[in-house]
């Protein structure tokens, strides 16, 4: 059997991004050594605040081209609160990547590995387990390039919900529900009691639901969803929603299972995908060596699964199992989860578990 080499573009980015990304490359190297006939070719690329300060372009053309031609992209985090364009908004090359590569599906799995890690009472390992799928190229982020008139007395943002993107993201959610083999249920999170865009989203969702008769479909308003996520997270299996609602609810959901350091994500398109933790550059802890790399490691596992090669799928499971094994011991935690291990030390534990 010939060896298959996967080209992975590595975009560390800003703040803790490179710290967690470097650790995931260590994990992937370990996995590579245990796989048959598969190798990884990692290439680091400049992106983010550093690049913006030097060249004025946070996502240089060479970096974008490398992302386009790679098999997958591994991304740390980007942006810093005090680095902004003249229009007042932060640089956000990860959003540019999502839009330019057509990564419509932000897949954000939420899983409780240890009952010690949830602020909720009475949930054992595995008892909080759902996936939030966020449309990632339009919604309320659609108008983000609009220029604010400095003399205006009012400001507007436009929500765009297109049939195409909605069909694709809803189908992705139903396919995930089918593959997970859990409750086999997809819940649309919307605001169809108030917004026309959401009435439309619901109409398209219902059309897609009819294509998946083996999956239960239901609807929940976004405000009630925030309540149910805290009161009764088990009511959800797969949730699908527009961009901004998904942005907000995915952080809330991360809080149910230990925080941002536990929340992986994959931005999925038809032919490309970017894997990154749901968290940001965490400037409050950047450079201290204490960032929790688990969200990044679980994102790397999602990448291996997405590469859709039997050996990579085996590697994805090795990472998931190793994380579960390490987190079974509540003493093995980084400071964000009440522990004392550094970013490198907890990764050492995961390498041992592999
Ligand atoms: N995908 C991305 O690249 C992304 C996502 C979110 C925010 N951002 C950007 O990051 C910057 C900081 O944003 P923010 O503070 O709102 O969100 P954040 O996710 O960076 O941090 C929120 C809180 O969670 C903690 N945290 C996050 N990740 C952690 C980890 N791996 N280990 C331990 N603790 C962790 C931080 O210390 C902080 O207290 C902003 O410039 C924002 O725009 C980027
Ligand atoms: C930093 C920001 C632009 C980004 C987003 O809104 O997509 C982040 O919050 C996320 O969840 O990945």
Structural overview:
This protein has 354 residues and is an alpha/beta fold. The protein folds into two domains: 1-103 and 266-354, Isopropylmalate Dehydrogenase (3-Layer(aba) Sandwich), CATH 3.40.718.10; 129-146 and 157-255, Rossmann fold. It has eleven helices and ten strands. It has helices spanning 17-34, 49-55, 61-69, 93-100, 163-180, 196-211, 222-231, 243-255, 294-306, 310-327, 343-353; strands at residues 4-13, 38-44, 72-77, 105-111, 129-135, 185-190, 216-221, 238-241, 266-268, 273-275. It has a ten-stranded mixed sheet, with helices on both faces. β6 (185-190), α6 (196-211) and β7 (216-221) form a beta-alpha-beta unit. The model has no long low-confidence stretch (mean pLDDT 97). Bound molecules: nicotinamide-adenine-dinucleotide and 3-isopropylmalic acid (IPM). Nicotinamide-adenine-dinucleotide binds next to loops.
With strands numbered from the N-terminus, the spatial order across the biggest sheet is 2-1-3-10-9-4-5-8-6-7
Ligands: nicotinamide-adenine-dinucleotide, 3-isopropylmalic acid
* Average pLDDT over all residues: 97
Proportion of beta-strand residues: 15-25%
CATH architecture of the largest domain: 3-Layer(aba) Sandwich
Helix content: 25-40%
The number of distinct helices, counting runs of at least 4 residues, comes to: 11
Low-confidence stretches: none
Order of helices and strands: EHEHHEHEEHEHEHEHEEHHH
The CATH homologous superfamily of the largest domain is termed Isopropylmalate Dehydrogenase
- Please identify the structural class as seen in this structure: alpha/beta
Distance between the termini: 25 Å
CATH third-level topology of the largest domain: Isopropylmalate Dehydrogenase
Q: Tell me about the biggest sheet?
A: 10 strands, mixed
Taking all Cα atoms into account, the compactness measure Rg is: 20 Å
Global morphology: globular
Catalytic activity: (2R,3S)-3-isopropylmalate + NAD(+) = 4-methyl-2-oxopentanoate + CO2 + NADH
GO cellular component, one term: cytosol
Domain Isopropylmalate dehydrogenase-like: 7-350
Family: Belongs to the isocitrate and isopropylmalate dehydrogenases family. LeuB type 1 subfamily.
